[in-house]
Amino acid sequence: MSIIVKFFVAPDDAAAARVVGGGPGLAFESVSFGNFDSEGAAVEWECLFFGDDFEELLEGGEPRIVAGEDDDGCIVFALSARLVDALAEAEPFRLLEVAAEWTRQRAEDGEEINPDVAAEVLGSLGTLARGVGAHGHGVYCWVA
Fold this sequence. Notes:
Blueprint: E1 5-10, H1 13-17, E2 30-33, H2 38-50, H3 54-59, E3 64-68, E4 75-78, H4 81-89, H5 92-108, H6 115-130, E5 138-143
Antiparallel strand pairs: 1-2, 1-5, 3-4, 4-5
């Protein structure tokens, strides 16, 4: 479980990787959350939007780590382009549906996520994602 989770917009993997030591700070537009498995959540969200198999996505390299080691310290990973597109294009009610299902799935595994927080996370990611399309940027996550 992560202590600090910051999703941010960056122009490319190299720029995103440079923040691994201290986070995106003011260099990139970002939103901060805490205390959830953001790597697992990114894969779960992709499954919820597209009906994919969790294990197959993991075996396929999702989420893609761009900097750091995920077992000892901070990491930066990229959300898949299709997840970013889905978040950007989703109507508010769809984001609420995905948030509710994510909350339900996490509860089945013994992890309590407040439904309002889940909705806030996905709503904030939708806002970030809508801002990247015209610029060709990506959405990344810094985890400490």
